[in-house]
Amino acid sequence: MLEDIVIRRMSKSEVDRALDWAAAEGWNPGRYDAESFYAVDPKGFFIAERAGEPLGCVSAVAYDESFGYVGLFIVRPPYRGQGVGLRLLDVALRHVQARNVGLDAAIDLQQTYARHGFKFAYRNIRHRCVGDGEAPPDLTELTEVPFDEIVRYDQTVFPTSRPKFLSRWIAQPQSAALAVVKQGRLAGYGVLRACRDGYKIGPLFADDPQIADALFQGLCARAAGAAVFLDTPEANAAAIALAKRRQMTAVFDTARMYTEGTPPGRVDRCYGVTTFELG
């Protein structure tokens, strides 16, 4: 019965468990994502329970007063079709109300989110290849770039500043983070992180296709012989072209949606989405 459901905030350890559920759904989360996620908004992770039994979860992180993001929306298989998801989503959206809220929806769930005010922006397409090759010259370890410069560049693409997230994201175990610096300024950066299956590259932000390609190759060289995934926004034709040029295979796609329309940002610099869970 719906009246028996309790929805409460998750602890950090419970976010780790939610990522295990995400792995079971085939979403292939990063092995160390929870710390970066939780740091953004510890109050933005919710779990539904009945008599102590976990039924499902959702995240709705408020980056600031203007932008939020919904993800990790999972109802465990035995409890689907019972209204649990709607209860979770209602609570999540109340947490980020009065903001422009984004999410990456499964294609067949677009109408569900549309009923909650979300509007389609563009598709994000996950591509796969196998890491190999050698890193090109003139790449810089991201640790050599001042952190304030990373945050500044990141915000030219992402809808808002996210220093709490980035400080952890770029320093995960089993990861690599590379940059291209031109004339003393950051011209692109990318992060490779360990996932349940292989590695993901994200974000991959760059001033132009040549810089994106160099960063992609440098990161692939750090994952030789392993699966590498890149989530490319269809709104940037150059990102799709990079995936094709690298002979990557499309795995699945999502619908990027927002409640107040696509926010400002240089989507032409986005060659790889950071994460479907937090944008």
TrEMBL record:
CDD domains: NAT_SF. This is N-acetyltransferase. It comes from the Bacteria. Keywords: Transferase. PROSITE patterns: GNAT. GO terms for molecular function: acyltransferase activity, transferring groups other than amino-acyl groups. Residues 5-140, 137-279 form the N-acetyltransferase domain. It comes from Methylocystis hirsuta.
